[in-house]
Amino acid sequence: MAENVFLFVPNLIGYARIIFAFVSFHYMADRPILFFVLYLISSLLDAFDGHFARLLGQASKFGAMLDMLTDRCASACLILMLSNFYPTYRVVFQFLISLDISSHWLHMYSSLIKGDQTHKTSSNFFLKLYYTSRPVLFIMCAGNELFLLFLYLLHFSNGPNVFEINATPIGLWSLLAYINFPIFFVKQLISLLHLVTAAQDIVAYDVAERRKSSS
Questions:
Q1: What confidence tens digit (pLDDT) does each residue in 80-119 have?
Q2: What is the CATH classification number for the domain harbouring 24?
Q3: Which of 12, 25, 42, 84 holds its CA 20 to 30 A away from the CA of 77?
Q4: Which residues are part of the catalytic machinery?
Q5: What is the rounded distance in angstroms from the CA atom of residue 45 to the CA atom of residue 145?
């Protein structure tokens, strides 16, 4: 009897992620704490689907695509809301969405045409470290999302005051946004690296195919 990949445990977790994400979007405009909690649950479940895929031997290309698309769509929806909250930086947010989607899509496509078993492989030193070190991958992804989430919360308030600088109170959301910003920035550099290396791999594949057809 053929296995039903749609019902693999990691994919069921992926569906739960989508549900939590969509419910969070319903509260995004005016229920910041509820949105924050639901969106965070959706993001944290990302760590569990990979764990169960390895534990149960249920890794699949469908699951990898589901995981990536959920991440990209959820982040895009959050960034779209931020562009409404901070219209002065709308072009920056548009760039972030474009970079996130294009870099991951090109990287995934590059992995498929090369015949890689998973998209989480690369000959580039930094990308290899990014994918093979689970602490690095977690910190990069978590820091990226947390910066965007605390930027979202800052639209509503600075959060509880934690200390003062020159009689100016510093709120918790502001502090956490500053802490996570360097990680967010490095994550964008990694996306650029994804884009460049994937483009190089695809062009190399094109060159090899042209040589075959001309020989």
A1: 999 999 999 999 999 999 999 999 999 989 988 888 777 7
A2: 1.20.120
A3: 12
A4: 71
A5: 13
Residue 153 near residue 32, CB atoms below 8 Å: yes
Which residues constitute the domain of residue 53? 5-214
Q: What is the number of structural domains in the chain?
A: 1
Residues 6+ apart with CB under 8 A from 101: 72, 76
Q: Are 129 and 145 in contact (CB under 8 A)?
A: no
Name the token pair of 156. Answer: 């509503």
> At 121, which amino acid appears?
T
Per-residue exposure over 57-71, b if at least 16 CB sit within 10 Å of its own CB, e if not = ebbeeebbebbebbb
Residue in the structure block whose two tokens are 């920035």: 185
Q: What is the pLDDT of residues 61-90, one digit of tens each?
A: 899 889 999 999 999 999 999 999 999 999
Residues in the chain: 215
Calculate the CA 96 to chain-centre distance: 11
